[in-house]
C-alpha cells in the first residue's frame, strides 16, 4: 500500500464559462465538483495503474463529507480525521474564449494535526511507500511534515514530498527520499534560479534526491549516484497540475518497488505525459503511458560535468 | 409583513485577493460566505429599517442548510421549501490591486416549484406587499412568476418585481405594481435603448409602474400619473448590486404603506445611496439614508414633454 497524505484537501470546483468577463458578471455554464488536493490526484493515478493507494486527510463540515463521498465514488480507500474546520474549495475558471484557466485556492485550516499524525503512524506498518503532497494547512505545527517524514524513514519507507515554500523547507529537515519541486518552487526554497545547480545543492546538503519538473521539457533528477535530464519523446500540450501529480505517482511506485532513481525516470516522464493529455488532474491515459515509455530520452548530466 | 420571494437563492462567496492573476493560480487571502440572492438583500435592508420581512426560498443540500442558518444569523425569518438540488454558489473575486470585482454566478435549478407556489399563496394572507427578486431557476415553469404575481395582485397586494430577460417578460404578464430594471435590463426587455421611452412604453402597454435604476445618476420612474427623474444630492461610489436591492426595498415599503410612486422617489434614491457606500449587498448606512433623503432632486419629466 502506498500511503498518500493530503494535509490540505479541497473540493475542486471547475467553472466552465463561454468568456470570463473579469471585473464584471459571468454566468457559469457548467459546474463540476470533485475531491481534490494533490495527494488525491497522486492516489488516483496510482489506482489507475493497479497500485493500492490510501488517502489520509483531515476533513470537516459538509464539504468534508462531500470529499469522503467523492473519494468513495473514485474507488479510493480513504482514512479521514475529523476537523472542526470545513474542507476548503478551490475554484478553476475554464475560459473557452481565451483558452486559459484561472485557479483560485482558498486557504486550508485544520484543528486536528495530532490525530492526523497518530493515524499516519498507525498506517505506516502497512505501507510500502509514503507520499506527502500539497500545502501545509494553518493549524499544523511548522515541524509537522519533518516529524512525519522522519517517522516514515525510521520505518525504512521511501518518502516522496511535493510541497513548496516553508512547508518544503520544513519537510527537508525530515530527510525525505525525494522531493519534487517545479522550477519556481525549487528557486524559492534554494534561492538559486539555475535548476541543475539548485537541485545539486539541495541534494548534497540534505542528502535527498531532487526531481525538478520542467513542464513540457521533462525533468531534471539529482541524487547521490548522479544527475540526469529526462525528456518526453514528443511535446504534449495540456494540464500541468495533473502532470506533476502523475510524476509523483511514478516516483512513489518506483521507490516502493526498490527501483533506483535513474531507472524510474523513463516511467516518470511517460506517466507525466500521460496526465498532460487528460482534461482533469488525477487522470492518466494508460495507453499514452505505454506509448511514451519507449521514447523518453535520458541525458546523463555527469558526463558533461 | 413584506414577503420577499427568492426564486434562486445562493451562498454568496467573496474571495479577497491581493492581485487576481487571470490565467494563473491566485491564493485567496480571505473567504466570506453568506446567504445571497437579491431578495435576501432586499429583506435585510427592510429589516435594518424596522420593517418585518420574510424570505421565501427553495433550498437544497448542505448549502441549503447553510443558507437557512445564515438567514437565521441575520435575524431574518425564512420560509424554506426543500429542493432536491443543492443551493448554488456565486463567487465574487475582489481584486485589491485592480480595485475591481469579478462575479461568477452558478446556474440555479430546483425541483419544487409547486411547493414554493403553495407556500407563497399561504403567506399572502399575512403580507402587506410582495417582492419577487432574482432570476428564475431552471425547473420552474415559464409562467411561474406571472401566476404568483396575479395571485398577489388578486389579493390586492402591491408587487415589486426585479428580474431580467425572459423572467421579466414572463412576470409582466402578471401585471405587477412595479418593475425595477436597470438600463441594460430595460433595453433587453423593451428592445429600446432610450430609458425614458422604454419605461413609458412598458408602463403604458402593461399597466405597470417602471422604475429604471441608473446607478450614480439615480432613477427614472414612470406610472399612469407621470414620469420623473430623481437624482441623489451627491455622487457616491461603491457597490451597485446592493444599490438596486435597496431601491427595491424602498419601493416595497412605500407601496406597503399606500404611498404613491411620486412620493416615495426621495426615499428610493436615498436608500439606494445608503447601500452604495456599504461594502456588501444587503447592508445600508441608516445615517447616510437620513442625510441623503433631504437632498434628492426630483425632476418632473411631464413638464418637459
Automatic annotation (TrEMBL), chains A, B:
Source superkingdom: Bacteria
GO cellular component terms given for this protein: cytosol
PROSITE patterns with a match to the protein in the record: PFKB_KINASES_1 (PS00583), PFKB_KINASES_2 (PS00584)
Pfam families reported for this sequence: PfkB (PF00294)
Carbohydrate kinase PfkB domain span: 11-282
GO MF term list: ATP binding; phosphofructokinase activity
InterPro entries with a match to the protein in the record: Carboh/pur_kinase_PfkB_CS, PfkB_dom, Ribokinase-like, Tagatose/fructose_Pkinase
UniProt KW tRNA processing keyword: no
Key word Membrane present: no
Keyword annotations from UniProtKB, A to Z: ATP-binding, Kinase, Nucleotide-binding, Transferase
PANTHER family xrefs: 1-PHOSPHOFRUCTOKINASE, 1-PHOSPHOFRUCTOKINASE-RELATED
Family: Belongs to the carbohydrate kinase PfkB family.
Protein name: Sugar kinase
Organism: Amycolatopsis taiwanensis
